[in-house]
Amino acid sequence: MADLSQIVKAYDVRGVVPDQWDEPMAELFGAAFAEVTGATAVVVGHDMRPSSPGLSGAFARGAAARGVDVTEIGLCSTDQLYFASGQLGLPGAMFTASHNPAQYNGIKMCRAGAAPVGQDTGLAEIRALVEGWLENGAPEPAAAPGTVTRRDVLEDYAAHLRSLVDLSGIRRLKVVVDAGNGMGGHTVPTVFAGLPLDLDAMYFELDGTFPNHEANPLDPKNLVDLQARVREVGADLGLAFDGDADRCFVIDGNGDPVSPSAITALVAARELAKHPGGTVIHNLITSWSVPEVVKECGGTPVRTRVGHSFIKQEMATTGAIFGGEHSAHYYFRDFWNADTGMLAAMHVLAALGGQSGPLSELVAEYDRYAGSGEINSTVADQAGRTAAVRAAYENAPGAELDDLDGLTVTTPDWWFNLRASNTEPLLRLNVEARDTETVERVRDEVLAIVRA
């Protein structure tokens, strides 16, 4: 029997197709999703991976067999599925493995209004139902099966985004977009249509085998083509989307990456201008710049754990207007608290096009410190190595330690966070300081203990 512990993660389902899961199992997930949400109707979408149409179709059949009406929106980005869930008021399922290699696929699920489904909010129950059915046989179909209908929401999604950020009056900008053969190639042309933008499209052909590079802009090697193109054509900026186009990375006119923390601070300032006094969520590995800018703009910063389910929960609890993560996930109250890289990109375009200077100058005020970026170490004993790091710093002068998410050590001049991966034998280190030399010193000190 399939081992669901290998594919049901903290926030989603993800694994190799067909080795770890397949269409018959997707059908069971559809039936379980229908049962756990108690919905009478759901919406389902999928990315461009070769296995996605078959898996999403099987999921739809499973839900319909339980008496649930299914709206299939077909090819879409993950934030387009969230839009449909919010706009239609329906639970949703998105078939994607985001930036993972081609042989992977997965399901991101949400309740009506794009509220996340994670281990504590329904995913554990869904897994238990599927495991039971795999062992004892599929459930009996409902007396009256649901319907399966198709609906295209791309134009409505684009119109909603354009209603939130007005780009009609900006100066004309030359923008290079690298879609990485992912869903940005599907959404960008419609969202940007008719705007004062000269679009230079890279890798817009939908191809789930990712023939040009991985659709993972978090890895610097996947930005090299975009950086070169921005410099070659003299663009004002570059945008890189991941496979399911819910994350967006920004390259300035010099071809240099802009820190996602700087983008978080920039967008936070714009959202606070629209919603004075609002709350902004940031995870604990974003730069010191983020809470500083939020306070300077009259807002309240709230620090939270890494991960979209934590951010979305905190946004719902606090009524936050915006949330940002250093992994380039950006969350908006005006978008059902869901993450949308496209809306963040539009804020950057609006800010850049609303003044005459280059992006590098614009973001300089939001990028105030030196950072290490995330450094991964393969470690068998994650808890033991973390305890060793704690012992080394717990009596350091001026150091404060906390355990919100892994171990964070903060001093007046630097901080670091050391977190264990949920899915791999890795410890992830992030360091920030007032200068590069201090970052390098603290980084090397911590890594020497972690890798001892």
Question: Which descriptors apply to this entry?
Answer:
alpha/beta; Alpha-D-Glucose-1,6-Bisphosphate, Chain A, domain 3; 4 domains; 7-stranded mixed β-sheet; 6-stranded antiparallel β-sheet; 14 helices
Model description:
By secondary structure, this protein is an alpha/beta fold. It has 4 domains: 4-152, Alpha-D-Glucose-1,6-Bisphosphate, Chain A, domain 3; 156-255, 3-Layer(aba) Sandwich (Alpha-D-Glucose-1,6-Bisphosphate, Chain A, domain 3), CATH 3.40.120.10; 260-364, Alpha-D-Glucose-1,6-Bisphosphate, Chain A, domain 3, CATH 3.40.120.10; 370-450, Alpha-D-phosphohexomutase, C-terminal domain (TATA-Binding Protein), CATH 3.30.310.50. Helices cover 36% and strands 23% of the residues. It contains 14 helices and 23 strands. The strands form 4 sheets. Strands 1, 2, 3, 4, 5, 6 and 7 form a 7-stranded mixed beta sheet that branches. Strands 18, 19, 20, 21, 22 and 23 form a 6-stranded antiparallel beta sheet that branches. Strand 20 and strand 21 form a beta hairpin. The model has no long low-confidence stretch (mean pLDDT 96).
Note the topology:
Layout: E1 13-16, H1 23-37, E2 41-46, H2 52-65, E3 69-75, H3 78-88, E4 92-95, E5 104-111, E6 115-116, H4 123-136, E7 148-150, H5 154-164, E8 173-178, H6 184-191, E9 197-202, H7 224-233, E10 237-241, E11 248-251, E12 257-258, H8 260-274, E13 279-283, H9 289-296, E14 300-304, H10 308-318, E15 322-324, E16 330-332, E17 338-339, H11 341-353, H12 359-364, E18 370-371, E19 375-378, H13 382-393, E20 400-402, E21 407-410, E22 414-420, E23 426-433, H14 436-450
Parallel strand pairs: 2-3, 2-4, 3-7, 8-9, 8-10, 13-14, 13-15
Antiparallel strand pairs: 1-5, 4-5, 5-6, 10-11, 11-12, 15-16, 16-17, 18-23, 19-23, 20-21, 21-22, 22-23
Helix pairs in contact: 1-2, 1-4, 8-9, 8-11
